[in-house]
Amino acid sequence: MCNAASKMEKHEMFQNVAPINKERHAKTKIKQSSDFHFAKEFHLAYVTVHEFVRASGNYPIVFLEDKQTEGFKAIALLGMEAGRNAFINDSGKWDAPYIPAIIRRYPFALAPSAEGDRFIVCVDEGSDLVNEDDGASLFNAEGEAEPIIDNVKRYLAELHQMDQFTAEFAAFLQANNLLTPLSMRVSLNEQPRNITGCYVVNEDRLNNLSDAKFLEIREKKYLPAIYAHLMSLAQFESLAKRSVSSGGSDIEVKDAAEEVVDDVDDAQGGAEKTKGTPAKKRLM
């Protein structure tokens, strides 16, 4: 199944998140690494509409119902078993050409400020990538932000904008009754396994839309994402071959323990400020 849990909990990916500031992180460095062991337990990840085309060549893209908002979120399925990412090998390398943006942003994250009028750039101080000996410094000896700070702000701001666009896309699909429960059977360990609980675009309903509604989809630039999503469903068979399971029960993909690697929401204050961020909330 692809059931989303009704309650999301904190996941171990972010261990000790803190707002970035020049006093606390004067000596902090970020190590460059191709080791993705930190994501080895994620069997799914949020993806944005802007990623659909590239992600569709590697991962099934489906929609999970968010019980808290009664809406839907787009996710890339990274494994058939909860707690196992089928795209990370024993050495920690990511075995696919495209890596979801929400994974690539680690160890950085956004968190809303206490006032709720802006976002704060945070770093996971518990990450192996964060240290004081090796990597790119966050600040120079004079306490001025190094280029990595601006690069991270820009990347997170763009990702936040893409998240907002994707939320509007999913809301449009839901409002126009274009999402339908997925019912699919794949072979896993030579045993048939049912995949249910996820949602996909209903092609019949899509094809039967009025000309005016279909034109609206084109004008909103949703069409490429819809087709990429539908094409991505062919990746279920290849994903099943990557996955290993000892049981013969149906597949349950849960949105539990903040498995989808969503933004951290409990860090507040003390981050470096930025101006002119093109988002509804200002980024700090």
Jot down its keywords.
7 helices, alpha+beta, disordered N terminus, three-stranded antiparallel β-sheet, 284 residues, 24% helix, four-stranded mixed β-sheet
Q: What summary fits the major beta sheet?
A: 4 strands, mixed
Q: What sort of overall outline do the alpha carbons produce when their principal axes are compared?
A: globular
The computed structural class is: alpha+beta
The count of DSSP E runs of length 2 or more, i.e. the number of strands, is 12
Question: What's the SSE pattern?
Answer: EEEHEEHEEEEHEEHHHHE
Q: Determine the number of helices (DSSP H or I, runs of at least 4 residues).
A: 7
pLDDT averaged over residues: 84
Share of β-strand residues: 15-25%
Could you tell me the radius of gyration in angstroms? 20 Å
Low-confidence stretches: 3-11, 256-261, 266-284
Helix content: 10-25%
Give the distance, in angstroms, between the N- and C-terminal Cα atoms: 39 Å
- Tell me the domain tally: 1
